TrEMBL record:
Protein name as catalogued: Exodeoxyribonuclease III
Keyword Acetylation: no
Cofactor info, note text: Probably binds two magnesium or manganese ions per subunit.
UniProt source species: Rhodanobacter lindaniclasticus
Entry cofactors: Mg(2+); Mn(2+)
Length: 264
């Protein structure tokens, strides 16, 4: 088999892996990403469809939770080598929101950042605390010699250019100055926001809610991000969003978001 020239990394909030498994398998078959981070499994560890994913050619590790949250990492023709399955900094936090592994020579931190609504309130405080823990952990990953990617549903709209109507989200936790500042602190460490790097000022969205045909009208948000450390950012070739997945019947409200990097 000839050596691959590029690797495709993708993140996808499936919004319930049980009900969305046909969509996920269809997307994997058509797009064939090499590395995938999944969020919002809404399934226990026992209910995770490892056998179906294996038949599709993907090794998987996962951290499930009944009814809520849940994250997983997939490797095409490869089994992820797990390094951690929680975000350090708060041993009392039992929510399944982070998983980390080496896949195809790249260290992947797959994350599902808290939504934080309603704000102000305890859910927003938890979001900010979680982001501070992520910031601290990210400092240990950004300057290493290995390629590293942090990817997932960040539940942060970085700028007004990342939402179809900023005015309607002014009170939303995803757009608060504190949320944006915490995200900006990550970038200041040296991480590259890959979609923005590729698309520049062009508007591109990764999430569309279920109201008023927002997906069909492309009235969305950009909240799913792929951040690359300097070693991996040098290998960035392409980026995109598979919006066709969101336009399917009974789809997740997110679309797969991906980048292509040169193979090492």
């Amino acid at each position: 088999m000839p050596r691959k020239k590029t690797l495709k990394l993708a993140t996808f909030n499936v919004n319930g892996i049980g009900s969305r498994l046909p969509h996920l398998l269809d997307w994997l078959g058509k797009e064939q990403p090499d590395i995938v981070a999944l969020q919002e499994l809404k399934a226990t560890d026992q209910a995770f469809p490892a056998d179906a994913l294996e038949k599709a050619g993907y090794g998987a590790i996962w951290h499930g939770q009944a009814s809520w949250n849940g994250v997983a990492l997939l490797g095409r023709d490869s089994m992820p080598v797990e390094s951690r399955r929680d975000l350090p900094g708060d041993p009392s936090d039992k929510q399944s929101r982070y998983i980390e592994a080496a896949i195809h020579g790249i260290v992947i931190g797959g994350l599902y950042l808290p939504n934080g609504n309603p704000q102000p309130g305890p859910k927003f405080e938890y979001k900010l605390q979680w982001m501070e823990r992520l910031r601290r952990h990210a400092t240990t990953m950004v300057d290493v010699a290995q390629p590293v990617a942090l990817m997932g549903d960040f539940n942060v709209i970085p700028t007004d250019e990342d939402v179809y109507d900023p005015r309607s989200f002014r009170k939303d936790a995803l757009l608060q100055p504190q949320s944006r500042h915490a995200y900006e602190q990550l970038l200041e460490q040296g991480w590259t926001d890959s979609l923005r790097q590729v698309f520049g000022d062009e508007r591109i969205y990764t999430f569309w809610d279920y109201f008023r045909q927002h997906a069909e009208r492309d009235r969305g948000l950009r909240i799913d991000h792929v951040l690359l450390n300097p070693v991996l950012a040098k290998r960035l070739k392409k980026a995109g969003v598979d919006r066709w997945v969101r336009l399917q019947e009974k789809a997740s409200d997110h679309a797969p978001t991906w980048v292509e990097v040169a193979a090492d």
